[in-house]
Hints:
Distance between the termini: 15 Å
Order of helices and strands: EEHEHEHEHEHHEHEEEH
Largest sheet: 8 strands, mixed
Number of strands: 10
Oligomer: single chain
Shape: globular
Amino acid sequence: MANSYFQFKQFLIHQDRCAMKLSTDAVLLGALAHQPSPEKILDVGMGTGVIGLMLAQRYPTSVVHGVEIEREAFYQASENIQGSPWRERMVIFNASLQDYSRNTLQKYDLIVSNPPYFSNHLKSENSGRNFAMHDEKLSQKDLLEGIKQLLSKDGLFWLILPVREMKRFRELTRHSSLCLSRRYLIRDSPQSDPHREICSFGKGLETGVILGEITLKDNSGQYSQIYGELVKDFLLNH
């Protein structure tokens, strides 16, 4: 997925201006994230805009907002939104989550994020990539505080992180108003250890966590049936 553009079934993603290119992580989160009837959706750290566009496709009456602090990514996502069939229902803000959550009265029924997750790691020489991957500009604590402020009473927050980082985030939520609702372990192949988790969180009492596993490829190296089912409405050749 490293080309300058990527064609989905109903929209096109340009990614030449984004340091972080389109990834399986983003597509998987866009395919899994849901809420029964969201009026307003927020994509935190919009990047190319792919997750927001997938959700605009799935929910034809929802308003979709995005926040993106990095200027080039903001322009890229704006371009992709304007080229989509859902541009009248989508708005992106060039702001940090911290600033946006402090300065808006909006509440969202569905919030998604594929956030920067490296903490205290060596950085590359690419400043844009560092911005997108390292959490100095959006710590897990700041992410949690922003979500608590923006999530509606019956809303759901969906998040993808490496396994170790998700464990840290789940620990943070134990002392907050967010409760874990669903937890998916993601592995590349049947033999590999899980390398990502996708979790959803809501407000209120924890009623029991639904646990699932998704294996991306089968023993032959082909995309698995479960992955194909998840992305069939979005990706070509699935």
